[in-house]
What does this fold into?
Amino acid sequence: MFNTNPVRDQALSVPGLIAETYQTIESSTRSALTTPEIYSIKNLILTGSGDSYNAGCAAAMAFSQLGHLWVRAETPMETSRYIAGVYVPKPEKNTLVIGVSGSGEGARVVEAITAMRASGCRTLALTANLMSRLGKAAEKALHVETPPFAPAPGVRGFITSAMALYLLAIRFGEVKLCYTMDAANVLRKQLRSCADALSKAFVSLKEAMIPFAHEIARCGVFEILASGPARAAADFGAAKLLEMMGLYTAVADVEEFNHLNFFRTRPNDIPTLLLCPKGSRAQRRCEEIAVALRVLKRPYRILTGPSGFEEHEDAVWRIPADVPELFSPLVQSTLMAFMASFVPMPEGEAYYHGHAGPWNESAFKSIKNSEIIL
Amino acid sequence: MVTINIDTDRSGLFEITHDVREAIKASGIQSGIAVLWVPHSTAGVTVISRMDELGFLDIENEINRIVPMRIDFEHQYDTPSDAAGHIKSAIIGVSVSLIIEDGELLCSPGSGIFFFEFDGPRKRRYHLQMISA
It folds into this structure.
């Protein structure tokens, strides 16, 4: 269907990945925590690095809205060195910390879970490797396996982690009787149907994405604006461009853009993408900022739902399906990777710079062998 | 077989006598039996007095007193309400046998057939299989 490269292949594989892994993950989330545990948890901290951090950011709103929890998504550095024993709320048994890491070997997330568990919090590892340091450090573990695929800056691990977190959030609300089992199953169906939304969007958006992707390469800069759960998709998209070709992308909250990035010089050389899922709580502000982008003459696009932003029709990328804001990062993040896959790689460049030259991580203590301080 | 849908807007009793009577009349069977089957494990069916609506509350309250919803049921795959519902359903039962005579449901005016929802609101259904004697 499309010319291929490894990142695009990963993005295109996501609908199949959701279909393939959904049932196993859904079933696992039902036994991850007992009913008494779910009732005892009032606060939730989601922690992880890179794509795992983005998965936490993507799902934070779902835990709050569906599970009626006080939630924050944090980096492991903040969690281990600043929250554990320092920040409010005081860690205690009614705080659950979920550490997300596919490998389970990121030193900082292992440290964060160990520190929070020592502080008296409940801890849950979300990992593909139950025997990893993370798997062993946490009180409980949720096994989330991502079927293997050709290596590339990853999309699939993010999708399975985010999906597991979403299903856990639905589970919290269901068990706490915030809604009926029928309503919970409607939410689950909406989550699964993200796969269909993606399949349609690949077809309908490809031609529009290619010239914009080339514009990003020509300008060498890129900005993504988003608020709420969509911010996770923005950060994810920025991460893919960095991992693929070292291209730095500025991500800004829709409001903060007006305070800061709005004033960048040569706006007509700053391709800008505004993420506004259908029904977003930030939609009205997104509409105002879209006007600003047009006035600035930035090359801009708006990734949104089937309707809205009609006055920007030439700049709108429509996801041809109703995806609730809660679950939109699943679709938008994949489309970010899909779009990134059309940005031409600089000649001779390799993903992660081939981990070569100054990017060879053996010269310092990197992600896995960083010193753990407790 | 006749299948009748019922959307319960809460947990509790829902009278279905009228719908069952109509289904029996429509079958044309003059004398026989009808088996009513509820294909759910957190709902049931029962025949009780329909004379005093407060009596419905008594039944609902007693069932809830016998099996109160708790969070420490062993069955935790679904919800506490679902776990309690399974037990209530097992106690009340999911089927009743009814008699058809002179083309009508044989049932005293003071009694009624009630669908018992234990985990509402839900989209439910029940089946009726009618056999001529």
In short: The longest helix of chain B spans residues 53-66. The helical segments of chain B are 17-27, 53-66, 80-92. Chain B has one domain: 2-132. The longest strand of chain B covers residues 122-132.
